[in-house]
Structure formats: C-alpha cells, structure tokens
Amino acid sequence: MESYRIAVLPGDGIGIEVMHAAAAVLETVQRRIGRILQLQWLPAGAQHYLDSGVALPDATLRHCEQADAILFGAMGLPHVHGADGTEIIPQIDLRMHLDLYAGVRPIRTFEGLPTPLARPEAAHIDLVLVRENTEGLFYARGRGDVRGDDEVRDTMRITRQGTARICEFAFRLAERRAARSGRRGRVTNVDKANVFASMAFFRKVFEEVAARHPQIAADSGYVDAMALNLVMKPWTYDVLVTENMFGDILSDLIAALVGGMGMAPSGDIGDRYGLFQPAHGTAPDIAGQGKANPTAMLLSAAMMLEWLAGRSGDAALADGAAMIQHAVEQVFASGQVRPMEFGGTDGTAAIAQAVAGALRPAHA
Ligand code: ATP
C-alpha cells in the first residue's frame, strides 16, 4: 500500500489541540482511501524553547526535509521572547530554510455558518490570498538596523526572482481555479506602488508576468484601498498576490470576513517542500479549554493531501482532500455542529468527531 511520511509539528497552545483533531480525521481518511499516512510527531515551538533552549531542533528540521509533507499547528507564546524582544516563531525560520515562498490562504464561506457581513453576496466569498513568504518587509527580521536609542530601520527587500515566482504561482493557481469553476480567472496585485520604489518594482514585475497569462484577468490595487474593498466587496475577488507584510495583515482581515481565524487554512509552498497550517496563532486566551475551532487545521490537512496528490500523481490523495472538504461542508450545512467561535456550543473534539463521522467517498 502507498505510504506517505507526514512531519507533524503541533507546536504550542491550540496548535496542539487542533492537531489532535486533524490526526483523528486523517486516521479515518487513510482507511477510506487505502493509503498509509505516517504521522511523525516532532518537537518545536516556544514551550520547547523554554524547556530546551532551542525552538526548532536540527533533528526536527531534518525530519521535515525528509518527509513528503509537513503539517504544522501553531507556535509562539506571548511570554516567551528571544534576546531581541521578538516572539519565538520558528515557522518563519522554516519558511526561509525550506524556501516555502508561496503563502496560500484560501477563504470561503460555508453554508450554515453566518458571516459578519450583512450583504447577501457575502454568502459567496471564495478567494485565495497568495502571500510572498521569503522577502518583502519580513526580510528585515533579525536584521533591524538599530542606531542607539534614537532610530531603528527595517528594510523592505523586493527582488525580480522573488516577485516573478510568486506572481507566476498566483497566475497558475488562477488558471486551475478557472478550469474548475468555468469562469475567467483573475489575479489582483496588492501593493503600494504610489509611494515606494520597491512596490513600483513589484507591480512592474507583476505586469510582466500577467502579460504571459492573457487568459487570466489582471489588475492592481493599493493596499489601503484593498483593505476597504476586501470588506466592501470581497465576493468580487478571485486570487490576490502581495508582498509578505501586506499578506500577513490581509490574511487576518480575510479570515474575519468568513467568521474568524478558525476557518482560515493555509499552505506554505515552495518548489520542493510544502507545509500546511491553520492561519491562526496559538490563541493563548482559549488554549487548554477545548474551545478551539479545528476547521482551519482540517482544511489545511485537506490542502496538504491535494498538494501531495499533485506531486505524486496519486488520485486517492485528492479523493481524501475532497472527502474532508465535503465532510466539513456537510456538518455545518446540516447544523450538526456550530463552533464556539460562531456562538455555538461545539468545541474542538465535537467538531473533529462530526467531521470524521461525515467522511464519505467523494462520489458517494
Ligand atoms: P499570531 O500572531 O501567532 O498569528 P495572534 O496573536 O494574531 O497569533 P491568534 O492566536 O490567531 O492571534 O488569535 C486571535 C484571536 O482569534 C484570539 O481571540 C483567538 O482566541 C481567536 N482564535 C484563533 N484561532 C482560533 C480557533 N481555531 N478557534 C477559535 N478562536 C480562535
């Protein structure tokens, strides 16, 4: 039987809780699709840093390099800081080390769950934010130019290679979504080209890449206007592509559009490795209480299976991904469960159990 090695990094806080939910669902999925998903649990995170002095052990990193895919919970605790005062967040080190340049954040509404927006069109939000993960303003991380106690400079770095590959990624994603939906795809570039030379350069490279994909509509917006548009008319967007810091901020904004962080999955994808994690953090305010909504983690596991299917050519994995997505749709649409995040009474275990119980072959 085909077998796949999955490096599992649960991390801290609710990362651990939602990872147990994902493991329970994947356990059922593997039986249904006749594949072995070997989950290898590995230490890393802020608590591990407190315990051992190392946030991301070399051995964990080696296992990630050798695995077929990486499943990641959440890492970081508010009271745990490195020497420069920033939080311990090894996920950024992993992105850099494994060159996971595309942060893919899909957002969609689910029937049966309310959206914070009142307009009826809000029931049909379905967009993907593609965040550049390896440069932009995050390039400054660990390189802050501290000039005494009077001034600090952080530098935004935009390269042709980094921009071209993330824009290519966004256009190819739009092509796949268009093939699936039958509609013309669209990629919207989000920048601040009216103020920064780096952002004008990002837009120039975006337009060069867009010219190679004439079948996909392409346009650009300034990040401030896009913050407005993403609240006013998010249902009009398809794929968005943007610099690292803007992507960091906008991914929380778009998660809010569909009801909260617990609904926002993500993939950090490079040419060689793929890491899949919920877009949320460790949520110390609800950790340890069983209240976390595991949906984002479950949908991230589905994204992982879909990505693995594309790489391996193993269609059973794509069936597994579709199975999780349909089960999630079904448990919400039927009203079987409602996450506490939406004012319901169902916690992590109840939602995981309901989704595992609703897993059916995609064609059934
Ligand atoms: P980070 O900086 O690590 O992304 P953060 O401080 O921005 O983390 P989160 O940990 O994502 O924040 O939490 C933001 C808010 O969303 C918190 O109030 C948290 O309780 C809530 N939240 C996050 N994830 C979930 C979830 N899976 N289920 C329910 N509530 C969640």
From TrEMBL:
Residue ranges constituting the Isopropylmalate dehydrogenase-like domain according to the UniProt record: 5-355
SMART domains cross-referenced by the UniProt entry: Iso_dh (SM01329)
Matching Pfam families: Iso_dh
Keywords, ordered alphabetically: Manganese, Metal-binding, NAD, Oxidoreductase
PROSITE patterns for this protein: IDH_IMDH
Record carries keyword Manganese: yes
SUPFAM superfamilies: Isocitrate/Isopropylmalate dehydrogenase-like
UniProt cross-references to InterPro entries, sorted A to Z: ICDH/IPMDH (IPR050501), IsoCit/isopropylmalate_DH_CS (IPR019818), IsoPropMal-DH-like_dom (IPR024084)
Cofactor(s), by name: Mg(2+); Mn(2+)
Protein name per its UniProtKB record: Isocitrate/isopropylmalate dehydrogenase family protein
Organism annotation: Pigmentiphaga soli
Lineage, broadest ranks: Bacteria, Pseudomonadati, Pseudomonadota, Betaproteobacteria, Burkholderiales
